[in-house]
């Protein structure tokens, strides 16, 4: 027979609820009890053993508190923490897998009085370092700045884009140029996102320099073909027009059937 107020499979007797080897000090034990509405609620029981002169436990004394809401909040917090850790692990994998060049930009104080700031790369994956030619030491020393990576003619537009991304949270991919450490220029497609807690911008891009070179060569070949066809058409059409004109004159001047 199951005692009232105790879930099936549990017993309310002290011999079952507390180990016999218990020293007699306060003991915390989670359990469940049923109230009058027959709904089981989780509780936390605090119990201490009362002993007689011989040291034998004669009874148990304690209190029971309902901890349903507290445990539910703890479970929600644990689930949220687990989900956040899982998301961080996914992003860390994407960042470190070097599928695309990625880095974080942040405004860093500079100068003797640290009263000025400049936008520096504070973290980057190996793909980004290979793209721009800088080393990990350059990033750690905050020597990779947005001003060095951006062509002079695009400086003003880049700052306007960064401000827009900060207000909206992200940008659509767009084409731009990047200046490498050796001074060469590369064509890239890049997207930006803003991470408010860290006050930093996330850069993700792709090098399309070779594709742009192939596209430029294809356009040049198409233009050469059009120029060639236009010239050939003119050179062929001019003598053909003369031949057709002379043929018409001969047909008008010479009687039919006299000369073939």
Helix/strand layout:
Elements: H1 14-17, E1 27-34, E2 40-51, E3 57-66, H2 68-96, E4 102-110, E5 116-124, H3 126-132, H4 136-140, H5 146-149, H6 155-168, E6 174-179, E7 185-195, E8 200-207, H7 209-253
Overall strand count: 8
DSSP strand content: 25-35%
Order of strands across the widest beta sheet? 5-4-8-7-6
**Over all CA atoms, what is the radius of gyration?**
41 Å
Number of helices, counting only DSSP H or I runs of 4 residues or more:
7
How do the SSEs run, as a string of H and E? HEEEHEEHHHHEEEH
Q: What's the average pLDDT?
A: 79
Sheet having the most strands: 5 strands, antiparallel
Supply the helix-strand structural class. Answer: alpha+beta
Low-confidence stretches: 1-26
How much helix, percentage-wise, in residues? 40-55%
Q: Tell me, briefly, the overall form.
A: elongated
Distance between the termini: 129 Å
Kindly describe this structure.
The chain is elongated. It has a five-stranded antiparallel β-sheet. The protein has a three-stranded antiparallel β-sheet with strand order 1-2-3, covered by helices on one side. The model is unreliable at 1-26 (pLDDT under 50). A hairpin with a 5-residue loop joins strand 2 and strand 3. It has 260 residues and is α+β, with helices and mostly antiparallel strands. It contains seven helices and eight strands. The chain starts with 13 loop residues before the first helix and ends in a 7-residue tail after the last helix. It has helices at 14-17, 68-96, 126-132, 136-140, 146-149, 155-168, 209-253; strands at 27-34, 40-51, 57-66, 102-110, 116-124, 174-179, 185-195, 200-207.
